[in-house]
From TrEMBL:
Gene3D superfamilies, alphabetized: Aldolase class I
GO aspect biological process, one term: fatty acid alpha-oxidation
GO CC terms of this entry: peroxisomal matrix
Protein name, per record: (S)-2-hydroxy-acid oxidase
Gene name as annotated: HAO2
Keywords: Flavoprotein, FMN, Oxidoreductase
EC number(s) on file: 1.1.3.15
Family note: Belongs to the FMN-dependent alpha-hydroxy acid dehydrogenase family.
Binding, FMN: 77-79, 106, 128, 130, 156, 224, 246, 279-283, 302-303
PANTHER family the record matches: 2-HYDROXYACID OXIDASE 2 (PTHR10578:SF149), S -2-HYDROXY-ACID OXIDASE-RELATED (PTHR10578)
SUPFAM superfamilies assigned to the protein according to its UniProt record, in alphabetical order: FMN-linked oxidoreductases
Record-linked InterPro entries: Aldolase_TIM, Alpha-hydoxy_acid_DH_FMN, FMN-dep_DH, FMN_HAD, FMN_hydac_DH_AS
Amino acid sequence: MPMVCVTDFEAQARELLSKSTWDFIEGGADEGFTRDDNIAAFKKIRLRPRYLKDVSHVDTRTTIQGAEISAPICIAPTGFHCLAWPDGEMSTARAAQAAGICYIASTYASCTLEDIVSTAPRGLRWFQLYVQLDRQLNKQLIQKVESLGFKALVVTVDVPKLGNRRHDVRNQLDLKTNLLLKDLRSPKERNAAPHLQMSPIDSSFCWSDLSWLQSITQLPIILKGILTKEDAELAVKHKVHGIIVSNHGGRQLDGVAASINALTEVVAAVKGKIEVYMDGGIRTGSDVLKALALGAKCVFLGRPVLWGLACKGEHGVEEVLNILKDEFHTSMALTGCRSVAEINRDLIQFSRL
Ligand SMILES: Cc1cc2nc3c(=O)[nH]c(=O)nc-3n(C[C@H](O)[C@H](O)[C@H](O)COP(=O)(O)O)c2cc1C
């Protein structure tokens, strides 16, 4: 049977992956309340379509941080892609390049950054940083990503401590062993990729440390994991270049708002001064449209990319991206939007929110 929507990939990935890998990808923190809410919140939003507009040409292209992408649908950082497909992040990078969208490589990528770049040299890439305790290590890593042509540094702020993932504890999942077995093949490679060693995240990192980060890189800095207007205002004050509204796919603090519900507050607080993106619960093209109507410049996908990878590697990721792009195109046409710039808040029925 053909796979026609993102949830078809989810169902097949579930059959193909081991229980512990499935649980690792799918799991939320604690009771999984926020993880589920990310999806449910989208379904509560209703659209207000406009008709009798010429939608014979619909253009899904847009820009993020000045770079053009074929649609506002990009790839969020997720670790350990080799758990889902043998050459892991290399497949993801090729699919992203083919789709003409941005791929954020994780600090916990299971392929070396050199391999990710050399397999898809023309792709637009950002690097996600979990700030490491060892400041020198951060510096080395940032210098490396700069020299490899990554275009932005995405600093994840919602993991001062790892959330409580019950499934992983029950399954006794040991990602360190997994990474070391699969990907740290030789001492030479180990030295070439210090980020693979899962050194401790710096839980003392705070707003005043951002200037240090800014002093060691020319790259635009994007904060991932902001959920409140207070932090959004601080982000603007500290001169970062963008925000990803995110609750880490419900994997960190259970009980926080669905990302799509937090988006409005953050967008209002930044007053257009920096770009705002979001991730969490995007499963259809109309979800993308809703996020853009509420002020996101672009959305990022976490689990759907891993499902695509688990089903068919690079081609699975490409299919997932193409399905969402096609659905987004349809949603634009059916709401009367010919360009991404025409998507606005009038498309949302606020009386039902
Ligand atoms: C298996 C998995 C691994 C993840 N690893 C990272 C990571 O290394 N760094 C990070 O900032 N976020 C990580 N995330 C969070 C994602 O970037 C993103 O916020 C989330 O998956 C979006 O929700 P979605 O899965 O509903 O699309 C991970 C998420 C999953 C599901």
